[in-house]
Design brief:
It comes from Mucilaginibacter litoreus. The chain contains eight helices and nine strands. It is an alpha/beta fold and 232 residues long. A four-stranded antiparallel sheet has the order 7-1-8-9, covered by helices on one side. A three-stranded parallel sheet has the order 4-3-5, with helices on both faces. Helix 2 packs across helix 8.
């Protein structure tokens, strides 16, 4: 077992053993636990009482964080020429079609989000083997395949995130930065949790929220008392 560093020991000492915190308290505590030299991401991990192997228990959704992600999101829009200006005006970093498809086929994937249109999915579809493993493949369910490319760009630049339960039944997503105020971390986390609550599959039985943990990059996780979260 790896030995704990001095900073890791100090962080662990601030968490009471076997204690579940309110979401508000955890949002404050996660800032105290963060000691990286860079602006750490704040993440939330939610274990759900679902079987993601069954299609009727898959949980996937979109949340718009009220205070954004704190990250600079690089957006590529693959669209027809008539939509290029709309995408540029909305703040897309890269706009085009055939030239960028060729670049991606050559190995370029230096973006965070790819937005495209239904009418060009036949071309974009062949990039699945490259984009799929990198979680970059546009998907109508995440709002990245749309005719309203300008709105889609504005949304992702403004803090819209896409999340999906993994094969172990856990949703893991970033909800901000450690430099955010505790109130902003709390409100972003609450938005994600309330959105997940609304997505509960009718086929899921028993306890839906099994556990919730809040952490920052390289910090220990803070257990959240599920009953303390409003609206779930």
């Amino acid at each position: 077992m790896a030995r704990l560093t001095k900073n890791q020991k100090a962080a662990l000492s601030k968490i009471e053993a076997n204690k579940a915190y309110t979401l508000e308290a955890a949002a404050s505590l996660v800032k105290e636990l963060t000691n990286t030299k860079f602006d750490s991401s704040v993440d939330i991990d939610v274990r759900l009482g679902v079987d993601p192997r069954k299609a009727n228990q898959m949980v996937r959704g979109i949340a718009t964080l009220p205070h954004g992600t704190g990250k600079t999101v690089r957006v590529l829009v693959l669209c027809t020429p008539d939509k290029e200006q709309e995408a540029k005006d909305a703040g897309a970093d890269y706009v085009g079609l055939d030239d960028y498809i060729a670049k991606i086929e050559g190995g370029w994937t230096d973006v965070d989000i790819i937005i495209t249109m239904p009418s060009v999915m036949a071309k974009v579809g062949r990039l699945g083997r490259i984009l799929g493993p990198r979680n970059l493949m546009p998907n109508p369910k995440s709002g990245t395949v749309t005719t309203e490319v300008g709105k889609a760009v504005t949304d992702v630049k403004g803090g819209k995130i896409d999340f999906k339960v993994d094969k172990t039944g856990i949703i893991h997503t970033s909800i901000g930065k450690a430099s955010f105020s505790a109130d902003k971390i709390y409100e972003n986390a609450l938005e994600v949790l309330q959105t997940i609550s609304k997505l509960k599959p009718s086929a899921a039985k028993g306890t839906y929220f099994k556990s919730i943990h809040l952490s920052s990059t390289m910090s220990p996780g803070i257990t959240i008392e599920t009953k303390s979260v409003a609206g779930i």
